[in-house]
C-alpha cells in the first residue's frame, strides 16, 4: 500500500484554472509543501501555486503530465509504478497474442474458412499457411488496408521491445524515488499512461 499527497495549483484564469499538479510520496500536506518548495512551488495565504504561476526561477525536478484523464487505479500515482504496471500489462497481452511474426500483404485477401472471407487481414506464420490474426474490413478499402498495415507493424516482437523500454525507464525512475528527470523518461511515462488507458477509465 502506498500513500501520496498531491498539490494542485490554485491559480484561476477567468472561468478556468491552472491544471498543474505535483504528485509527492509525502505523508502529510506540510511535508508535501516542503517538496513543492524544493521544486519551485509556493504556499501563499492558504493557497498553493505551481512554479510557473508563482514566478519561481527554480526549474522543477518533477515533471507531471496532467491531461484530465482519471487515474485507473492507485498504482498510477507514482511514475515508476505506472511504468511497472504498464510493462506487466503489455507483457501479458503480448504473451496471450498469436505468436510469430505478424505480416500484412495488401495484394492478398483472406480466402480461408469462416466469415472473414474476402477481407483484408493480418496474419502470422508462413505465407502458404497463414493464421489470421485480425480481419480489418472489406478488401481494397483504404481504411481496412491502413488498419492492417498498422496492426502488423506493432506485432508481438514490437510489444516485447516496448516492454523492455518501459522496464529500463522504470529502473531509472525508481532509483530517483519516482521522480521523472529527463525528457526520455517522460516519454516512457507518457507511453505507459497510453497503454494503461487501453483498459478504459472508471
Describe it for me?
- The protein has 202 residues and is an alpha+beta fold.
- The protein is 39% helix and 17% strand.
- The strands form four sheets. The chain has a three-stranded antiparallel beta sheet with strand order 7-8-9. It has a two-stranded antiparallel sheet with strand order 1-4. Strands 2-3 form a two-stranded antiparallel ribbon.
- A hairpin with a 6-residue loop joins β8 (119-124) and β9.
- α3 (79-96) packs across α6 (183-197).
- The longest helix has 20 residues, at 156-175.
- The protein is elongated, with a radius of gyration of 23 Å.
- The two termini are 20 Å apart.
- Mean pLDDT is 82; it is low at 62-76.
Helix-and-strand structural type = alpha+beta
Lateral strand order in the biggest sheet: 7-8-9
Provide the gyration radius in Å.
23 Å
Average predicted confidence as pLDDT: 82
C-alpha end-to-end distance: 20 Å
Helix and strand run: EEEEHEEHHEEEHHH
Share in helix: 25-40%
Number of strands: 9
Main pleated sheet: 3 strands, antiparallel
The proportion of strand residues reads: 15-25%
Amino acid at each position: 500500500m502506498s500513500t501520496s499527497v498531491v498539490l494542485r495549483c490554485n491559480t484561476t484564469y477567468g472561468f478556468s484554472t491552472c491544471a498543474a499538479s505535483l504528485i509527492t510520496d509525502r505523508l502529510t500536506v506540510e511535508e508535501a509543501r516542503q517538496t513543492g518548495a524544493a521544486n519551485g512551488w509556493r504556499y501563499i495565504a492558504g493557497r498553493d501555486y505551481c512554479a510557473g504561476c508563482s514566478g519561481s526561477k527554480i526549474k522543477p525536478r518533477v515533471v507531471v503530465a496532467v491531461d484530465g484523464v482519471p487515474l485507473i487505479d492507485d498504482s498510477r500515482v507514482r511514475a515508476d509504478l505506472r511504468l511497472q504496471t504498464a510493462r506487466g500489462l503489455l507483457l501479458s497481452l503480448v504473451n496471450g497474442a498469436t505468436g510469430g511474426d505478424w505480416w500484412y500483404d495488401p495484394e492478398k485477401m483472406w480466402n480461408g474458412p469462416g466469415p472473414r472471407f474476402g477481407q483484408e487481414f493480418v496474419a502470422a506464420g508462413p505465407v502458404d499457411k497463414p493464421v489470421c490474426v485480425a480481419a480489418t474490413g472489406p478488401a481494397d478499402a483504404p481504411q481496412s488496408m491502413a488498419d492492417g498495415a498498422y496492426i502488423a507493424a506493432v506485432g508481438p516482437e514490437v510489444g516485447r521491445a516496448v516492454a523492455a523500454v518501459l522496464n529500463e525507464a522504470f529502473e531509472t525512475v525508481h532509483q530517483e524515488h519516482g521522480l521523472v528527470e529527463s525528457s526520455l523518461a517522460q516519454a516512457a511515462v507518457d507511453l505507459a499512461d497510453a497503454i494503461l488507458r487501453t483498459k478504459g477509465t472508471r
